[in-house]
Amino acid sequence: MLRFDGRVVIVTGAGNGLGKEYALAFGERGASVVVNDLGGSTSGDGSKSSRPADEVVDLIKSRGGKAVADYHSVEDAKAVIQTAIDNFGRVDILVNNAGILRDKSFVNMTEQDWDLVHRIHLRAAYLLTHAAWPYMRKQKYGKVIVTSSTSGLYGNFGQANYSAAKMGLVGLSNTLSLEGAKYNITCNAIAPTAFSRLTQDLLPPGAEENLKPAFVMPLVLYLCHESCADTGSLFEVAGGWMGKVRLQKSSGAMVRRANAPMTVEDVRDNWQEIVSFAKPLYHLTQADQVTHIMNAVESISNTDQGNSNVLTETFTYTPNQLILYALAVGCSLRQPNALRFLYENHENFSALPTFAVIPAQSLSMAIVSSGKMGIDIDLSRVLHGEQYVELYQPLPTSGTVTLKGKVVDVLDKGSGAVVIYDVEMFDENDTLIALNQFVIFSVGSGGFGGKKVSEHQRPTVAAPKRKPDHVCSDKTTIDQAALYRLTGDENPLHIDPAFASTAGFSRPILHGLCTFGHSARHVLSTYANDDPALFKAIKVRFTKPVEPGQTIETHMWREGNRIFFESKVPESSQTVLTGGYVDLHNVVLNTTSPGAPQEMSKTTPTSSRVNLKTKAAFVEINKRAQSQPELVKKIGAIIVFDITKDGNVQQSWTIDGKKGTIYEGSPQEGAKAQVTITVDDDDFVDLATGKANAPALFAKGKIRAKGNVMLAQKLSTLFKDQAKL
Ligand SMILES: CCCCCCC[C@@H](O)CC(=O)SCCNC(=O)CCNC(=O)[C@H](O)C(C)(C)COP(=O)(O)OP(=O)(O)OC[C@H]1O[C@@H](n2cnc3c(N)ncnc32)[C@H](O)[C@@H]1OP(=O)(O)O
């Protein structure tokens, strides 16, 4: 039998319920008991009575135990502890049990309700333990219990004050267990459910039998016994069941990447991992938690993704590879601007933006065969499903890039499995320069019961339902696939008739990324004057195979800076690429490209009469203004340049008709300086090229600067001196 002979215990709120049960049990097992009870009501008001404490003391004594009554409020903590010292000369065990309720829905809760509950539960536990602490430290022995609640752990309607105080007690206990360890003082928290004066109105009928305080008492006594070393623990206990409660967290995700800004979208894109409890973590100490974070942070530089699934590889290329790629996707000296992609000594020698797929693709085989997908894939039946590429800066024309790739999802599409993997590309300074998302369709690998859609998949976007604004086409050669495979994708599907036939094709098919490269080039040529710096992103789905020798016809629709496209093969009348779009930083029409000017006349209304009443109208004006500078002359414009907090210049502009302002890109909040340029009927600004007669505008007082004087002056001088905005 576990006994407490020689131990002095204080039980607060011991006149009834749980406290009474503890006090009687301690008394029975040899402890000297201070039976503290103010004798008040459950809400803490009304008259006080010494009767409850006296009755418990009498009972203990009648059973041969030692006990003394204490009628102080728990807020009068020193006096409570003094009762133990005066009567028994020490204090070994403190059970913080007293409590009151002031239940109210949050909207009706008063400060008084909040404060009183906090004072009696949390503050009094602090005061009492604080008053007992020096005695316990000195004698190098102490057992403290705080009473938390499931209302704190899980929340309970109408108990905002009580729940908060009860969780506060868990925090108090956690820290006291650490501070007391050196002095052999333990501190534990319990979250009991028992039928008592306090809970009788809350518990369902019949609860009395099963939720007796006697079913909680044994845990408390055991925790207070010298043979129990547990400390800093929290227990739920009710009806004879008891268990330990601990905090668990998801294994989470490191969403920060090396040398890349951390964004809200990073959080969104990793949400599944952040909230998944599939592999929970438990940290028992603050040190564990700090170590975990430090390891996670370190892993950014080790794996640059904080994720062990990340595969890393480097890829070195020379201008020759850029040229080979350009030829493989149909670049030809017949085209006006092709030289910049085909001649390494050209003053603007550049990589085609879609060359970004080539280094990234080098990681494909490693990723697909890494076993991280959880399904078996038959490599002879793998088709390219979709591709997304985003460039953060133009690609270097040579050098070594580092690739980091990982599988982000595997989908079950019934007829096949879809594997989605992201590959990030970093330059030699570890700066993120491109993101590729590959979507691979593995024919026949479906039906494994996996999910059907992925929030990580970059969506395709349907083209507008009108005739295309522009069409470009290229006839591929019979050797197109043979040429393209030299860029790095050596899949025999594209060259070996026997392999192609195993995969179910009558002859080798063209690489999906070769078709993709052709179409991307068509868009770049038509809408970006072949300038790779204007390219932002591209997405497409491969819907039908293309055979070498067939024609790739790219149908394009422009909406602002987004060019929608679909590609068709006239020989088979099939649409081979769907849902495609290219996002450009700016549209610049290539007037040397046959057909481009016609596109403008086809889609741009010539009328300058527009309804300015709605925002949609403003947007429309803006679109027209960009393509028709003369319009701007008629309706006027305000261009605002902001210097942002971090020193960047941002441009926003307002088409300012007779009825006022508005337009996208409102002036930057917190801008340090701002330059506003007002353009009227008699001024000329070509918004398509950004050129204006700035000195003339300045002379007319139409360039105004405000904000930080130095910066504003600098900015306005800049625009005065330079005619190009
Ligand atoms: C080793 C590692 C890496 C390898 C990388 C790749 C290497 C390259 O060398 C390989 C290539 O280049 S292959 C050539 C390019 N690709 C192609 O030609 C594929 C053309 N597409 C098809 O044939 C069919 O769309 C097909 C067969 C893909 C799907 O057709 P169906 O089975 O008829 O599917 P359908 O009934 O239309 O749709 C079923 C569900 O699948 C989704 N889906 C369809 N096409 C998809 C595609 N292309 N990509 C992604 N998902 C696709 C549909 O949306 C549908 O899903 P849900 O039911 O959820 O709507």
TrEMBL record:
Its main location: other. Pathway: Lipid metabolism; fatty acid beta-oxidation. It is found in: Peroxisome. One of its GO terms (biological process) is fatty acid beta-oxidation. InterPro entries: HotDog_dom_sf, KR_dom, MaoC-like_dom, MFE-2_N, NAD(P)-bd_dom_sf, Peroxisomal_Beta-Oxidation, Sc_DH/Rdtase_CS, SCP2_sterol-bd_dom. One of its GO terms (molecular function) is isomerase activity. Keywords: Fatty acid metabolism, Isomerase, Lipid metabolism, Lyase, Oxidoreductase, Peroxisome. The keyword Zinc-finger does not apply. Residues 7-193 form the Ketoreductase domain. GO terms for cellular component: peroxisome. Belongs to the short-chain dehydrogenases/reductases (SDR) family. This is Peroxisomal multifunctional enzyme type 2.
